[in-house]
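Possible regression after last week's pipeline update?

I re-ran a chain I had predicted before the update to compare outputs. Posting the input and the new output here so someone can diff against the archived version. Not blocking, just want to make sure nothing changed silently.
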Amino acid sequence: MVRPSLRTRSVGARLTAAEYASLERQAEASGQSLSEWCREVMLASVNGQAPKNRQSVGTEVQAVMAEIVALRTILLNVIYKQANGESLTAEEMQRLIERADADKLKKAADRLQQGSKSSST
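New output (post-update):
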């Protein structure tokens, strides 16, 4: 009989309180301890896989969602300005686009995560 390898090495990282709380929530949502969840996520990342207890969203879906989020941000800002009788200069429009592009990936990831949480409950 072949004995399984013993886990004799550890990895550590310093986190902010908010980062730690975020990791705890993810681990709890997957039904694992924080250390086991971190181990699974790290090893899956190294092996190019999605963690077992986690729904994987393809990069194409993330890219499309990011563009939709950015477009929504721009559209709502333009409509708001027009509804208030204001016009938009080319420079203002460029700033709007840059601001929407700056955080579209994070917003998209947040929205996709919210969607996966609500579909699993």
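Follow-up from reviewer: compared with the archived run. The mean pLDDT is 85. Marking as no regression found.
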